[in-house]
Amino acid sequence: MRDAQPRTIYLKDYQPPAFLIDETELSFALGEQHTQVRSRLRLRRNPAVAGVQGLELHGCDLELLSLAIDGEELAEGQWQINGELLQIAEVPDEFVLECHTQIYPQNNTSLEGLYKSSGMFCTQCEAEGFRKITYYLDRPDVMSVFTVTVEADATRYPVLLSNGNLVSAEDIGQGQHRAVWHDPFPKPAYLFALVAGDLAVVEDGFTTASGREVELNIYVEEKDLDKCDHAMASLKNAMRWDEEVYGREYDLDIFNIVAVDDFNMGAMENKSLNIFNTSCVLAKPETTTDMGFQRVEGVVAHEYFHNWSGNRVTCRDWFQLSLKEGFTVFRDAEFSADMGSPTVKRVEDVTLLRTAQFAEDAGPMAHPVRPDSFIEISNFYTVTVYEKGAEVVRMIHTLLGAENFRKGSDLYFERHDGQAVTCEDFVAAMEAASGIDLGQFRRWYSQAGTPIVEVSGTFDADRGSYALTVKQSCPPTPGQPTKEAFHIPLAMGLIGEAGALPLSLEGVPADPDTADNTQRVLNITQPEETFVFTGLAEEPVPSLLRGFSAPVKLRFGYSRAQLLRLMRSDTDGFCRWDAAQQLAVMEIEAAVAALQADQPVNVADDFVGACRALLADDALDPAMVALMLQLPSEAYLAELYHPVDVHALHQARDEVRLALGKQLSEILWQVYQRCQSDEPYAPSAEQIARRSLKNCALSYLMRAGGEQAVAAAVAQFENSKNMTDRLAALTQLVNSPAEYKAQALQRFYQDWQHEPLVINQWFQVQAMCQLPGTLEKVRSLMGHPAFDIRNPNKVRALIGAFCGQNTVNFHREDGAGYAFLADQVIDLNRSNPQIASRLLVPLTKWRKYLPAVQGRMRAELERIMAEPALSNDVYEVVSKSLAE
Ligand code: TRP
Ligand code: ZN
After folding, report:
1. Relative orientation angle of helices 423-434 and 389-416, to the nearest 10 degrees
2. pLDDT computed for residue 31 by the predictor
3. What is the pLDDT of residue 513?
4. CB under 8 Å, gap of 24 or more: what pairs does 287-290 form?
5. Candidates 114, 115, 124: which one to mutate for ligand 1, based on the most atoms within 8 Å of Cβ?
6. Range 557-704 has CATH code 1.10.340.30
7. Which of 11, 683, 729, 763 could serve as 319's disulfide partner, Cβ 3.0–4.6 Å?
8. Beta-strand pair 165-173/200-207
């Protein structure tokens, strides 16, 4: 147990900074033994704040060598260090503070601040990493103009980069060189970046709408030069898209991306010097799956979009994180939808939300999109802040319409350019530009939890009317026992025998602006309300929450026949897919019951028939077919029940897969053949769709068993020229009893041992294997020479995938999976607290499971809690998980 309780920070305690930093000059002498940092800060009192005497700067793990004010060195006693604060009791109103510190980047395993990755120096300052570099006002509402000098060995570190424009570069003798960078845009410290290394570069350019020539560079290790084309193309597409859709242009002459191996997250939007995890920038068909290509496109766009939604307009404090992240995720999702298949993108995003985010909302770390408090801000880079935050922005878009939303974003950027602002400022701009009242809507920012929307319908045949009654509620979350009603946009339609029906809503005139009168957005604002539709000659089936118009759990007591109608003929792609999911859930529930009663598992004929019809219809988008045939994941199923019986659900789901594979095998073979192609690889929506349907067919065929399926998987593994098909085949082989699998794994390793990102996939396929014995395999792979516990990508690929995605094996009945995770968390707590605390998440969900399981999971949390020297990161998550 730790000695001192770490401090909780509250939004309500926010105070503006007592001092401002107009200019920041930093000078780095990078060395192998140590690095020296000299800062020269032009400070003055904030005229808006009265009554504060001394100066307090943040600093963490720094060796202070000297401190001077206006050229006069401070004597000991004129300052003191108190935890993470450097306090100087007496300072003038305006002064220059010079500070000289020494740090040891080569020993920094936390990957925050300045550290080394594969021999290069790099930085990660968001959220509070800058204080590990030098003493500073490390808070986002202190914005400063930075000038950065970097000196390093010219042979080891020929490339020296920082934010903004290069001012000078010169040799300074003794094998050293120096570069000076200047960024004209004032920015908070979290957007500072520095890179020094032996890097190769791919160069390109972009001309902005107003004619500015921008130099685009992607810096990577020499061996990766052939994997930058996709990121570069994505960057240019994103730059054009932001001009066209948001009217936002790039504002400097250089835009640099650097790829690093060791990185806690996906990428970082530092002004003009984005730093990327290699996994989010490198891609080529031979080594990267379709999903990998899409991730690169999405993350490159995300970081680029931050230049406006994050950098030009930034956050006042870290409680406002969703201001930049929710908005930017919404922007990148819309971009990806425009570049590829909108329905597929939407279904993927909703799936993530309904599994990971709904689970977060139902667990001990539940928090609003704008949290009220935290112990460690790194723990709040969550699916709630990012993905639910993006849903909140999407709802504003739905309520305002595209045109008003654009007026709102224009006003937001115009009002707040160069400022550090709040979520409230964003909503206020949307409201002012559109004239639409978002008063009640603001509760989405302050209330945690997933609202439940229960809908029922009654048809009055005599009057030809259909009444929809909508009730909403929201379960309690930590610190929020009761909730007020949300303002929920409920997009809907009514589906008749022959398709979508025109809508006429009693008491509401038809909207003259909408050409499509078969869809409406209902404004749900009350705990309960009823909407009556008239002029109906038949009982309709309601198509509800179209496009997933709000992040809620929707309940409607659909019959099988109604779901089959929606699955067949709903005009909304999302609802069509969701109807198929609901039918599949019914099949899995029936299988659970059958297995409990020791009966054989059968899948209902009407569902098999509907699946067969999908497979037979070659006019349908193959991507939709693949999505609709994929059974709901175990993670999604777990959200539907309390308590969750992991093993019963796993077995039932697997039996349904088996039954479908057997009954549909003939048509699955036809589809598998029909989707083969030997065109050269492209990550286009069309090709991705075809590959996903083909591999979906293969997975059912493999489950159904037989030599023919194994032969097809082996042939696909051996002959594919792209990683999507190769890895899909390998996954099938690894999860089957096929003898060939050991050979396949070995061969794959041999072929790709020099590509770390491919080896991560090799770790991951094995970690996700559903067969017994996987934990032992994972343990032994941790001793493999290619594994490295200090590299977050490897930890995620092996340990993260096993604990987070391999439900049956992680929840082994003897509890060994839980003990394994606790061991890893205890180890990583010392070297990389951010990664330790993220890895821990599956254990925090202990209250979801059967009583015996709860005890075993809880015991492991208690074991972690008893560790001395727990980081704030791990302490916060464990203590909140154990709290009553
Ligand atoms: N702002 C980054 C993003 O675009 C998030 C991020 C990158 C981050 N690296 C980090 C957050 C390290 C915390 C710690 O989403
Ligand atoms: Zn972001």
Report:
1. 80
2. 98
3. 61
4. 287/227, 287/723, 287/752, 287/755, 287/757, 287/758, 288/227, 288/230, 288/723, 288/757, 289/723, 289/724, 289/727, 289/761, 290/683, 290/687, 290/688, 290/691, 290/692, 290/724
5. 124
6. no
7. 11
8. unpaired
pLDDT 10s digits, 469-478: 999 999 999 9
* pLDDT exceeds 70 at position 830: yes
Q: Which residues pair with 309 in a beta bridge?
A: 313
Query: Does position 516 have pLDDT exceeding 90, yes or no?
Result: no
Among candidates 606, 615, 705, 618, which has minimal Cα distance to 654?
A: 705
**Is the preceding peptide bond at 342 cis, omega within 30 degrees of 0?**
no
Predicted confidence at residue 514, as pLDDT, reads 66
Average pLDDT over residues 190-208: 99
Our mutation pick for probing the ligand 1 site, out of 111, 130, 138, 264, counting the most ligand atoms within 8 A of Cβ, is 264
Domains of the chain by residue range: 1-198, 313-446, 452-507+518-550, 557-704
Beta carbons within 8 Å of 675's beta carbon, 6+ residues apart: 622, 690, 691, 693, 694, 697
Tokens of 251: 């504002």
What is the total residue count of the chain? 884
Q: CA angle, 683 as apex, 681 and 686 as ends, to 5°?
A: 95
The dihedral through the CA atoms of 109, 112, 118, 119 has a sign that is negative
Query: What global pTM score does this model have?
Result: 0.98
CA separation for the pair 767, 778 (Å, rounded): 6
838 CA distance to ligand 1 middle (Å): 13
What is the token pair recorded at 844?
């925090």
Q: Which of 112, 115, 126, 299 to mutate to test the pocket of ligand 1 (most atoms within 8 A of CB)?
A: 126
**Considering the chain, what is the average pLDDT of its residues?**
97
For position 555, what pLDDT does the model report?
98
Give the Cα-Cα-Cα angle 277, 282, 287 (nearest 5 degrees). Answer: 125
pLDDT digits (tens, 9 = 90+) for 646-660: 999 999 999 999 999
| CB distance 751 to 720 below 8 Å | no
Q: Are 552 and 451 in contact (CB under 8 A)?
A: yes
Q: Is the pLDDT of residue 3 over 60?
A: no
Query: Whose C-alpha lies nearest to ligand 1, atom 14?
Result: 126
Centroid of ligand 2 to alpha carbon of 194 (angstroms): 19
> Is residue 179 over pLDDT 60?
yes
For the chain, the first-to-last Cα distance in angstroms comes to 18
Quote the CA–CA distance of 673 and 117 in Å, as a whole number.
45
Q: Once rounded to an integer, what is the mean pLDDT over residues 642-647?
A: 97
Per residue in 586-617, pLDDT (tens digit) is 999 999 999 999 999 999 999 999 999 999 99
Where do runs of H (alpha helix) occur along 71-214? none
Query: Could you tell me which of 502, 504, 492 has the C-alpha nearest to residue 542?
Result: 492
Q: pLDDT band for 1, please (50, 70, 90 cuts).
A: very low
Distance 325 CA to ligand 1 centre (A): 9
Q: Give CA–CA dist 272/129, Å, rounded.
A: 18
Which one of 303, 376, 387, 431 is the catalytic residue?
A: 303
Ligand 1 mean position to 303 CA, how many Å? 10
The SS3 assignment for 755 reads coil
The answer to whether 1-198 and 452-507+518-550 have equal CATH topology is yes
Q: Are 546 and 493 in contact (CB under 8 A)?
A: yes
Query: What homologous superfamily is domain 452-507+518-550 in, according to CATH?
Result: Aminopeptidase N, middle-beta domain (2.60.40.1840)
How far apart are the C-alpha atoms of 786 and 759, rounded to whole Å?
8
> What is the chain's Cα-based Rg?
28
Mean pLDDT score, 857-882: 98
Q: Whole-angstrom Cα distance, residue 824 to residue 811?
A: 16
94 included as an active-site residue: no
- Give the helix/strand (H/E) hosting 115: strand 113-117
Give the CATH class of 1-198.
mainly beta
Among residues 399, 370, 422, the alpha carbon closest in space to that of 487 is found at: 399
CATH 1.10.390.10 fits 313-446, yes or no: yes
Evaluate if residue 852 carries a pLDDT over 70: yes
